[in-house]
Design a protein that fits this description.
eight-stranded parallel β-barrel; alpha/beta; 10 strands; TIM Barrel; binds ligand PBG; about 325 residues
Length: about 325
């Protein structure tokens, strides 16, 4: 009988050793909380497919953002749910539109403690639910959409948003918005390019969260889930166009893309742990099939290990609390 000379288990022998050699860290400051604010409500409305997540009123939004700041999260990402929609998404660049009003409120409430971020996409504001404006034949018109995005970017910057999340997947969106902002004196507004955003089945619960009007799918602008190289290409294009940060989305089913993007660009890379990822862990936990806290923290750690510098997650506030307890 010969005994092993090489014993990797030595590094796992005690909590103290494991703690000292753990390669990846997870900190509250690396978490961003996505939040929904809905026009015309006075109390938060729960989202049934995302237990624990709600469409906020302006008041409950402020309270939840303060709670997030106190927990130590790094930022919040705001999505608006308007009462009225139209073909061009007029509510998106209306200074009195819900997203812009709520942004100003959050900047006032938590703007010193948190990076206040806004989703820049038309889908919540259009009556057809697409991320852009449509041509007569019903396809999404890339270049006409860019003009709407620039108007939306200026409205968000004027409302005080620190960082715009460009999630619409139109070609040239980063360059067009950067140019438009700089021309109006907003050269300090950060741009997050949703570079590798895939047409995913896991966005399901989000459609309830924003009361989406979409018929069909987004496969003419979001990426095919089978394409790794194409995600990398989009990230390189966004970096070249001047994005300050790039995104990979969803997170858990695209960890390989996340790693490659992290290795290829020289700017921060974030990942979005989306609604369906949240719903799956919540549903399994509610059934007693997995340990909720352990599963959530492992999922976030794994996304960090794959290369995310920060993670957008609906668990940001509770996870920040758990990390502090540890
Ligand atoms: C589109 C947008 C979507 C999400 C964020 N921004 C939905 C989509 O692309 O269909 C999904 C986020 C989530 O599922 O948590 N503006």
């Amino acid at each position: 009988m010969s005994f092993p000379e090489i014993r990797p288990r030595r590094l796992r022998q005690s909590p103290a050793v494991r703690n000292l050699v753990r390669e990846t860290s997870l900190e509250a400051r690396q978490l961003v909380l996505p939040m929904f604010v809905r026009e015309g409500i006075t109390e938060a409305v729960p989202i049934s497919s995302m237990p624990g997540v709600a469409q906020h009123s302006l008041d409950s939004l402020r309270r939840a953002a303060v709670e997030a700041a106190e927990a130590g999260v790094g930022g919040v990402m705001l999505f608006g749910v308007p009462e009225v929609r139209d073909a061009i998404g007029s509510g998106a660049d209306d200074p009195d539109g819900i997203l812009n009003v709520a942004t100003a409120a959050l900047v006032e409430e938590v703007g010193d403690a948190l990076v206040v971020q806004t989703d820049l996409c038309l889908d919540e504001f259009t009556d057809h639910g697409h991320c852009g404006v449509l041509t007569d034949d019903g396809s999404v018109d890339n270049d006409a959409t860019l003009e709407r995005y620039v108007a939306m970017a200026l409205a968000q910057a004027r409302a005080g948003s620190h960082l715009l999340g460009l999630s619409g997947m139109m070609d040239g969106q980063v360059a067009a918005i950067r140019r438009g902002l700089d021309a109006e004196g907003f050269s300090g507004t950060l741009l997050l390019g949703y570079a590798a955003k895939y047409a995913s089945a896991f966005y399901g619960p989000f459609r309830e969260a924003v009361d989406s009007q979409l018929q069909g799918d987004r496969r003419t602008y979001q990426l095919d889930p089978g394409n790794r190289r194409e995600g990398l290409r989009e990230a390189l294009i966004d970096e070249a166009e001047g994005a300050d940060i790039v995104m990979v989305k969803p997170a858990m089913s695209f960890l390989d893309v996340l790693r490659e993007v992290r290795d290829a660009v020289h700017i921060p890379v974030w990942a979005y742990q989306i609604s369906g990822e949240y719903a799956m862990i919540e549903a399994a936990s509610a059934n007693g099939w997995i340990d909720r806290r352990a599963a959530v923290l492992e999922s976030l750690l794994s996304i960090r290990r794959a290369g995310a510098d920060a993670v957008l997650t609906y668990w940001a506030t509770p996870a920040a609390g758990w990390l502090r307890e540890r």
